[in-house]
Amino acid sequence: MQAPEPKHDVFQAIADPTRRKLLRLLGDRELPVTAISSHFPMTRTAVSKHLRILSDAGLVSEQKVGREKRYKLQPEPLLELKRWLAYYDRFWDNRLAVLKHLVEAEDPADIGPLGPQAVPPGE
């Protein structure tokens, strides 16, 4: 018996530009795979594989309506990505604050004995 294939995480799922485009497309409305496929220069099977990866990551849900499956964006897992990126937002804000302090310092002695690292973040 084969072990089940591991599920994809949000970071793996959004790593591919096609899947990011799929998420943007599904952000506005629920669509069947035939309508989704018309936006891509690939087969419906290839689009379905991308949708399966997004589904494994919890980023899209599917619902059977008649004979077709409709896909819908589930944005909640993107919160993990948002939290991860928030660290880097703070990192760059601090770096830019240090740079601003250095550029605006009238006297190089104002920078401090340890250079830019001596400047407290947010000042």
From TrEMBL:
SUPFAM superfamilies assigned to the protein according to its UniProt record, in alphabetical order: Winged helix' DNA-binding domain (SSF46785)
Keywords noted in UniProt: DNA-binding
According to the entry, every stretch annotated as the HTH arsR-type domain falls at: 1-93
Gene3D superfamilies found in the cross-reference section: Winged helix-like DNA-binding domain superfamily/Winged helix DNA-binding domain
Q: Does the keyword Lyase apply?
A: no
Q: Where would one find the signal peptide in this protein? A: none
Indicate yes or no for the key word DNA-binding: yes
Q: InterPro entries from the xrefs?
A: ArsR-like_HTH, HTH_ArsR_DNA-bd_dom, WH-like_DNA-bd_sf, WH_DNA-bd_sf
Pfam families linked: HTH_5
SMART domains, alphabetized: HTH_ARSR (SM00418)
Name-wise, this protein is Metalloregulator ArsR/SmtB family transcription factor
